[in-house]
Design brief:
Strand content: 5-15%
Enzyme class: transferase
Organism: Kibdelosporangium banguiense
Radius of gyration: 46 Å
Shape: rod-shaped
CATH topology of the largest domain: Rhopdopsin 7-helix transmembrane proteins
Largest sheet: 5 strands, mixed
Structural class: alpha+beta
Number of domains: 4
Protein name: histidine kinase
Catalytic activity: ATP + protein L-histidine = ADP + protein N-phospho-L-histidine
Pfam families: HATPase_c, HisKA_3
Number of strands: 9
């Protein structure tokens, strides 16, 4: 959006500025109509009254456009065009020779600004091409050089220093030819531009087309007068009345823009459920630019949603998230003259892309949760199979053997008491062994030492650790059982990893209580380089911690030791 940021500037003019301008328009219009309203003895042709009213319409519509789009120069240019209509009738009312000279000199002053206005509707009132300068220059030559020169030679003018009928006639012909070339050239340029413009460009050029039609009518009027030597009053009326179409069409364009902004409500309502593939079409419809492209930053420019390079040129509006540009709207340059609409559509695109990002993030997190659940289920299944296998291969077999021994004891106790006594001893040993295996198995499921509290259990882990371990615990009440289980198993797995892989010589276990959180942190001075994604142990710990809405952090830079930190809620 940097390339067009200057087009979005707001006017710094205050209310007093606009009040003074409107007062000037009203005063100029009233002054131009004074002869019609109050001086009945001063003859004023009806068509001249029309021109004066048209001047007021241009000035008023120009002020409205100027205030509505302060950085679009078409508004000020239209205002100046309106005032140019008043120069000749106002100066003609003054009883000064210089004022009468100005009145005769500048009746066509409005043509200069009107030509500039018609040529620059597409560029916001900015003259940008050589053709614009040449055509405006032709009108300027007629006004600045030929018109004063004609007044020097034409008999009856206030500055007729060298009256010469033939010279005045030649200069008059030159004036007409110059104006004819300028107005027909302007109409031709507008026609070419309209033919090659995009749909938004043609909408922006609509007042220019209306102006080109007006110029062609005046060109016809000049041609008829040149060929016949007489004015066509009917054609003059048609041409004069057609001028009002230019400000009307321009205001209709402003109204269409306002209605388009009002229609954005439907776009905003549909953003929440809009699919990425539908976004570009919705934005193009809202902005009125069917060729609008949503580009995404790539190494060598922008790409579309399918990854294809974006080749369209035009103005751009950047879309940012967290201070980083994530996309850009590429649209027709003519839309720069409606910054409110562009800004609203850009905001809609920002919201849509943010929603899509949040949806993608939610789906990613959901996938992670599903994956975590699957790992937890798989780990639970594996643990059940391990318990089943241990029961089958250990305690179950021992109990079967014990049952068989009891059956032998029952048969031998009366027939052979000595053998029965020997069997009782064997059965007792077998029972003790089975009980020991069951206790060992139960410790794997639920460490008995946790019954005495997490601090005691961590001390027990440190005592049994193959690496010298230090335990530091913040004092506090007992934690909920699920939190103690999770903290114990995190410490147990971390100690086992430190002994197996880290080649550490010391380990520190810290139990921290920070308000709503309980933190278990195990730090060793080993070789580091632990990667949670490569093994099942740390991943299983992460799953266990996340089921309690906690968070597991593994910091393990190479050759700098490993820190495993589990942040658990004090209340699961």
């Amino acid at each position: 959006m940097d390339g067009t940021a200057h087009r979005f500037a707001r006017s710094g003019h205050g209310p007093v500025f606009w009040i003074l301008l409107w007062a000037a328009v009203v005063a100029a219009e009233f002054g131009a109509l004074v002869p019609v309203l109050f001086e009945r003895d001063v003859p004023v042709e009806a068509v001249d009254v029309v021109f004066r009213l048209i001047g007021g319409s241009f000035a008023a519509c120009g002020l409205i456009a100027w205030h509505r789009r302060p950085d679009n120069r078409s508004g000020p240019l239209m205002t100046v065009t309106g005032f140019a209509f008043f120069v000749s009738p106002l100066s003609g009312q003054l009883d000064w020779p210089a004022a009468r000279a100005v009145s005769m000199w500048l009746p066509d002053l409005w043509v200069l600004f009107f030509v500039l206005l018609v040529l620059t509707f597409l560029t916001g009132g900015r003259v940008q091409t050589k053709a614009d300068r040449v055509l405006a220059g032709a009108v300027l030559v007629e006004l600045v050089i030929l018109a004063p020169l004609w007044m020097l030679f034409a008999d009856g003018t206030p500055i007729a220093i060298w009256p010469h009928e033939r010279a005045a006639e030649i200069i008059d012909i030159a004036q007409r030819v110059t104006l004819l070339a300028a107005v027909t050239g302007t109409a031709a340029v507008v026609a070419v531009r309209w033919w090659s413009a995009s749909a938004p460009g043609r909408r922006a050029l609509a007042p220019g087309v209306a102006g080109a039609v007006c110029l062609l009518l005046f060109a016809g009027l000049l041609l008829v007068q040149f060929l016949t030597g007489e004015k066509s009053l009917a054609l003059l009326w048609i041409a004069a009345c057609s001028l009002v179409a230019v400000p009307v069409v321009f205001l209709l364009g402003l109204l269409r823009s306002r209605l388009a902004r009002g229609g954005l409500a439907g776009l905003f309502r549909g953003l929440r459920t809009m699919q990425p593939a539908d976004l570009q079409g919705a934005l193009a419809k809202a902005l009125g630019d069917p060729d609008l492209v949503v580009g995404y930053p790539a190494a060598d420019g922008y790409v579309d949603l399918d990854g294809q390079p974006v080749t369209r040129s035009g103005s751009t509006a950047g879309i940012e998230r967290d201070g980083r540009q994530v996309a850009v709207l590429i649209y027709d340059r003519s839309l720069d003259d409606d910054p409110e609409l562009v800004d609203a559509v850009t905001s809609a695109a920002t919201i849509a892309l943010e929603n899509q990002h949040l949806n993608a993030e939610a789906q990613r997190r959901l996938a992670e949760v599903e994956s975590s659940r699957e790992r937890i289920i798989a780990a639970g299944d594996a643990e059940r199979r391990r318990i089943e296998r241990n029961l089958h291969d250990g305690a179950q077999q021992g109990l079967v053997t014990l049952a068989m021994q009891l059956s032998l004891i029952q048969r031998e106790i009366r027939r052979n008491p000595a053998d029965a006594e020997h069997l009782v001893t064997s059965a007792s040993d077998q029972l003790a062994q089975s009980l020991a295996e069951l206790r060992e198995l139960a410790r794997g499921i639920h460490p008995a030492v946790l019954d005495q509290g997490l601090e005691v259990a961590l001390d027990a882990l440190a005592t049994r650790s193959a690496i010298p371990a230090t335990v530091r615990c913040d004092p506090g009440p007992r934690l909920p059982q699920p939190v103690e289980f999770a903290a114990y198993f995190v410490a147990s797995e971390a100690l086992a990893n430190a002994a197996k892989y880290a080649h550490a010589s010391a380990v520190t276990i810290s139990l921290l209580r920070t308000g709503p959180q309980t933190i278990i942190e195990i730090t060793d001075n080993g070789i580091g380089g632990a990667d949670p994604s490569t093994g099942t142990g740390l991943r299983g710990l992460s799953d266990r911690v996340e089921t309690l809405h906690g968070h597991l952090i593994v910091l393990s830079p190479p050759n700098a030791g490993t820190t495993i930190r589990a942040e658990l809620p004090a209340q699961p």
